[in-house]
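Good morning,

Attaching, inline, the backbone tokens for the sequence recovery test we're adding to the shared suite. The designed sequence is right after.
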């Protein structure tokens, strides 16, 4: 029976965000244990709709032995302290060496990890893993759709299997794909070889959404290509445009059975389709006044405002106030803002107590790029522990912890104040504090696209609103210093390849 090592070492790094990501952030994680080793990761992630959960399931389904190493995935945030990265990598390699011999290595990576000293952390991880297991042992990694794929990542792995969906509702399926490819590779039935086409494009998150064109059409082409003889996998990565690194941007990675030229030709073919449709990938944001005006004029909800600029799922602080201020000034009734991370405001509300009026200084405390701190008088409706498990189709069953959580009501606006950053893409973020999304006229969500998986089907309209922040979907607003140039839409590009 083949023995396959499994591990997860992930982070989505926003190099424009304030502060550094520390070792404690990796230990803390994002709701469930943050840094797990050995059998603990099997116990915690079994049945979870994530890539590693699928690896664990595949071991029983396909018949291979697991060698669980390490798993960690903190909240998206700023640059990783080099020492933190080095410590986690050392633990991973320690576990891998102790597990030898293994017949293959399955890794759950993200693809947009940046440290103080490394632009291409995933390439470094794969290179070190390859150095331990040698050139004959297959190494296959799963990636997020927002991966910034580098040549080194392709060189040091047999295959990179990326998500096909945004919102990311297919992590389980892609984990199974990776595990199945691993088994046939170990058994010698295929020889996976890969090639990369980097497309000189920065794509804002809303236009990477696979629920609509043009991204849905590109993914359909990728699926068609996967049915061709000799093609094992096609990964289309929209890239994470908030990482100021040379390899930032869209790309296509293709794995073929022993034919690297076929893989390269297929990757370039799909890359050219993305390039030809570049104007369709341009982001256009809606002014807050227009989006709020729509809700007030129609009176039909829920109308969703996506504040992608302050999306904690992309490293933003989630304490921005631009959207909240606009909703309060417009005197919007029956509305909710989810969420504002502000431990000080939470403490003030808890001290005041449920049912009591209090004046709080809310939001705008991380930096000056997401709106000012607001002085607001309202009443405390509810105090909760902020824990819930996702019930929607994205990462079903995965637990989240917002810390102490307060519903603070100002006029007709309910503000969910939390101690911890989470992206409220699952409706349970609201329902766990007694707010039913279907019953609201207007809901402001700190999310770029993921909310569409669970909140979207309930909505009457969705607006990607124009707000400031380090995750602003209009990528032309950022000043890049390390990014390879020329690149669209920042520059004129004569030839994409």
């Amino acid at each position: 029976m083949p023995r396959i090592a499994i591990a997860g070492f992930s982070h989505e790094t926003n190099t424009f965000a304030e502060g550094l990501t520390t070792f404690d952030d990796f230990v803390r994680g994002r709701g469930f244990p943050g840094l797990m080793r050995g059998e603990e990761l099997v116990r915690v992630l079994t049945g979870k709709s994530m890539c590693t959960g699928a690896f664990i399931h595949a071991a029983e389904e396909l018949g291979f032995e697991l060698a669980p190493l390490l798993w960690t995935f903190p909240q998206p945030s700023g640059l990783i302290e080099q020492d933190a990265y080095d410590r986690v990598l050392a633990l991973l390699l320690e576990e891998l060496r102790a597990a030898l011999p293994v017949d293959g290595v399955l890794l759950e990576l993200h693809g947009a990890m940046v440290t103080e000293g490394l632009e291409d952390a995933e390439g470094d991880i794969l290179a070190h893993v390859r150095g331990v297991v040698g050139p004959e042992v297959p190494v296959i990694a799963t990636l997020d759709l927002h991966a910034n794929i580098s040549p080194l990542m392709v060189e040091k792995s047999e295959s990179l299997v990326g998500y096909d969906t945004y919102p990311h509702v297919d992590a389980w399926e892609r984990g199974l794909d990776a595990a199945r490819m691993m088994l046939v590779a170990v058994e010698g039935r295929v020889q996976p070889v890969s090639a990369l086409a980097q497309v000189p494009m920065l794509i804002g998150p809303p236009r990477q959404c696979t629920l609509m064109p043009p991204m849905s059409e590109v993914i359909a082409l990728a699926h068609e290509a996967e049915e061709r003889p000799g093609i094992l996998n096609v990964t289309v990565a929209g890239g994470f445009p908030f990482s100021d690194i040379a390899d930032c941007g869209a790309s296509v990675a293709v794995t073929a059975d022993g034919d690297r030229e076929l893989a390269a030709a297929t990757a370039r073919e799909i890359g050219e389709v993305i390039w030809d449709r570049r104007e369709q990938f341009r982001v256009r944001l809606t002014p807050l006044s227009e989006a709020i005006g729509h809700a007030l004029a129609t009176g039909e909800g829920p109308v969703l405002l996506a504040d992608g600029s302050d999306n904690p799922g992309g490293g933003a602080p989630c304490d921005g106030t631009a959207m909240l201020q606009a909703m309060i000034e417009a005197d919007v009734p029956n509305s909710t803002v989810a969420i504002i991370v502000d431990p000080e405001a939470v403490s003030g509300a808890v001290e005041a107590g449920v049912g009591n009026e209090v004046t709080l200084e809310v939001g705008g405390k991380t930096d000056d790029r997401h709106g000012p701190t607001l002085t607001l008088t309202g009443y405390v409706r509810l105090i909760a522990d902020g824990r819930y498990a996702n019930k929607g189709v994205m990462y079903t069953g995965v637990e989240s912890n917002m810390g102490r959580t307060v519903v603070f009501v100002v006029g007709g606006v309910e503000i969910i104040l939390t101690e911890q950053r989470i992206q409220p893409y699952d409706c349970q973020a609201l329902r766990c504090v007694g707010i039913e999304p279907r019953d609201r006229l207007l809901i402001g969500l700190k999310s770029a696209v993921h909310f569409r998986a669970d909140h979207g089907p309930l909505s009457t309209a969705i607006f990607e609103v124009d707000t400031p922040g380090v995750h602003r979907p209009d990528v032309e607003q950022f000043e890049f210093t390390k990014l390879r140039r020329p690149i669209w839409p920042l520059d004129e590009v004569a030839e994409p390849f």
